Amino acid sequence: MWFSRFWKPARFRHTRLSSISSLAWLAACSPGQATTFPIRKLYCAADALAWLPGQAGICRRYAEEAVEAYQDVSAPDWSFSFQAGSRTDLAIARLGNGEVGGAAEALAPVFELPPGQRTNPVIQSVHRVHAALNRAPPSVNGRTLKAEIENFTDLGEEIFLATRAN
Description:
The chain has helices at about 1-5, 20-30, 40-50, 55-70, 80-95, 100-110, 120-135, 140-165. By secondary structure, it is mainly alpha-helical. It has one domain (about 20-165). The radius of gyration is 16 Å and the shape is globular.
């Protein structure tokens, strides 16, 4: 999606938004293939809101709905990448609320992805959780989650580089 993957908060630092919900609506309703299906609109809204400081509550709502919707792997619009992305957005929202244990719970299924599904977009989404964790107050659970993320992303990057070399 054009908005959520390339947008950085610094670009809009001097912009006054009248409504964060309007921003989420814009992200969810923007044209493009990623928003063809309602489930992906939930994910795209959560993904856009995950970038914004102070929006953990509404981001969590969209992310929880997206995680729930992506439980049905038989759905024609199901995608492991979007499922993982919705889980990383939920983890970021939970970290924004100070719930390190909740973030770890949200990421557990992502950490179980087989090597072939540890694609670059999945790795980058997990890196975003790592960055959010670095902004959170230090804790034992936080250090454990950070180690799990680093292990997952290091292995994923090794697999990605090995497939690119062949």
